[in-house]
Amino acid sequence: MTRPKPNATRQAVLRHLRPSDLQAAVRLATQATTGVIGIAEGVHQSVRRKLGLSAGTEPDRTGGFTGQVYRGIRGVTELVGHGLDGALATLLPLLDDPSTHPEPSPGREAVLAALNGVMGDRLLAQDNPLAQRMELRLAGQALPMDRPAPLRERLAGASPHLLLLVHGLCMNDTQWLRSGHDHGAFLAQALGCTPVYARYNSGLHTSINGRELAGQLERLVAQSPAIESITVLGHSMGGLLARAAVFYGRQMGHRWPAQLRHLVFLGTPHHGAPLERAGHGVDVLLAASPFTLPFTRLGMLRSAGITDLRHGHVLDDDWQGRGRFDSPHDHRVPLPLPEGVACFTVAGTLAPQRGLLADRLTGDGLVPLRSALGQHDEAARRLVFAKDSQRTVYRTGHLELLSSAVVAQQLVQWLAPSMVEVD
């Protein structure tokens, strides 16, 4: 049996794991250990208070000798973590050359996307190497947005019709390919457009990602004067991000919004998703008892991107100035669909057929039907789609919207060149 060459083995390993992952893991482990210590101390403190014993001045910190023990454990953990992090930061440049890395495996990409969706805001704030930055990607490769000449070269020969695809929470651009079908590739062949895929840290606030996407599109259009029209296709959270990008692009006086012709939403939670509202309910229940109160910290690990899905936040004003875990109420600033853009929405439902009860209660497993269709009891929050600009797809789950032949054909009908465009 022939043994693989050492270099080949190394390349295979690097497709799944990078040396910098060790540094990232050390940081996560240190933070997790410190968090667990904090929860243990909080429970200890709650028990002492319940028994009527002296519990110190801080609600989640013990006092006296017990407090000194906890502080000592916490200090040692942080000291070890900082020491390892510093050593690895010195050694990694000597041991690793990023230019020799092979193309990462789909499995690695999927894990990173999920991790960023769950705690990407924390990864970025702590400068963790696993935090993803926003990229626009063409043919599986990131576009060099900071280098005008190479960017123009990559865009040479692009169609005048740009199709931008924006993925959802905990996903990435490669996951538009599902069950052998990719809406981007399909529409490129059917309509002759050029598909460009966004990749972003879905754990950040939607408005922050939307503003960044607007800036990326502005740079892209500036280096590709051949682009005449833009279509944005957003799945799930990606639809909220697309609305944010249009808003901030117009606010900042960008040129690309004038070229935007179509906005298409697939399973977008325009008015939120019940799973995040359920998560907030769990937070409230845990906070109701002094013994379980410390465990609310676990729920508060979920990212800003996830909590934005409670009501479908799009703008900074929807969340700024408020604690993410404080209020279950909808504080959004009403934002209608952008004027001058043809907007379409597809809603999936697991229901087998149309029916009043099924239409109201059943969604695609993650997003309620009414939320995906923009419907709301308050007129100011309602998103008004024309009757022939909305489609409900039955027996179809949230992720199945990405591979549905029915959805694909509907997209072609909506986006075909023969369609009258909005002036």
Overview of the molecule:
Helices cover 44% and strands 12% of the residues. The strands form 2 sheets. The protein has an 8-stranded mixed β-sheet with strand order 2-1-6-3-7-8-9-10, with helices on both faces. Strands 4-5 form a two-stranded antiparallel sheet. The chain folds into 2 domains: 6-96, no CATH class; 135-272 and 333-415, Rossmann fold (3-Layer(aba) Sandwich), CATH 3.40.50. It has helices spanning 6-14, 19-50, 64-95, 106-125, 148-155, 183-191, 206-222, 237-251, 274-287, 296-299, 304-308, 356-361, 369-372, 405-415; strands spanning 135-138, 141-142, 161-166, 177-178, 181-182, 194-199, 229-235, 260-266, 342-349, 390-394. 36% of the residues are buried. The longest helix is centred in the first third of the chain and has 32 residues, at 19-50. Strand 1 and strand 2 (141-142) form a beta hairpin.
